[in-house]
Design goal:
151 residues, alpha+beta, 5-stranded mixed beta sheet, two-stranded antiparallel ribbon, globular
Length: 151
């Protein structure tokens, strides 16, 4: 699944000359609605692209943590302050107020949070500060169901 989502977003990465590194090397089977998983990754990858500078880097990682898959999407973009992180999941909140373009509803992270929580997972953001990149982490429950995503 992840390969397919990345392929669908390829032009976004190419337009900004971003290097995308997918470090997910093993199959993790999660109990997730496939369409919601695609929507979640699309929202988070689009955010990483939007807030990255040209020639930046986006890194996707995953690891097994107890009964969950812990996934991270790290970028080398504009980063976030503690105050921005605090409000990031609120509806219509935009971390960069100068970016009031029509291509962004300000709902991507709100929708992502609802998707993750609906699947009994957690989502959070870590950033060392402005201009230092950010990492979005989320967890999804592991299951023997056949909904798979892999490198």
């Amino acid at each position: 699944e992840i390969k397919k989502i990345i392929k669908n977003k390829k032009t976004l990465f190419e337009d900004k000359k971003l290097e995308l590194k997918n470090n997910i090397t093993k199959e993790l089977i999660v109990n997730v609605d496939r369409l919601r998983l695609e929507e979640l990754f699309s929202n988070l990858l689009e955010n990483s692209v939007k807030f990255s500078k040209d020639n930046g880097k986006i890194i996707i990682d995953a690891e097994k943590e107890k009964n969950y898959a812990k996934i991270s999407i790290k970028d080398t973009g504009m980063g976030m302050t503690k105050q921005q992180i605090k409000h990031a999941f609120e509806e219509f909140y935009k971390a960069d107020q100068s970016r009031h373009d029509f291509h962004s509803s300000g709902l991507g992270l709100t929708i992502s949070k609802k998707i993750v929580e609906k699947h009994n997972g957690k989502i959070w953001i870590e950033s060392p500060g402005s201009n230092k990149g950010a990492t979005v982490f989320f967890t999804l429950p592991l299951n023997s169901d056949k909904k798979q995503w892999e490198k």
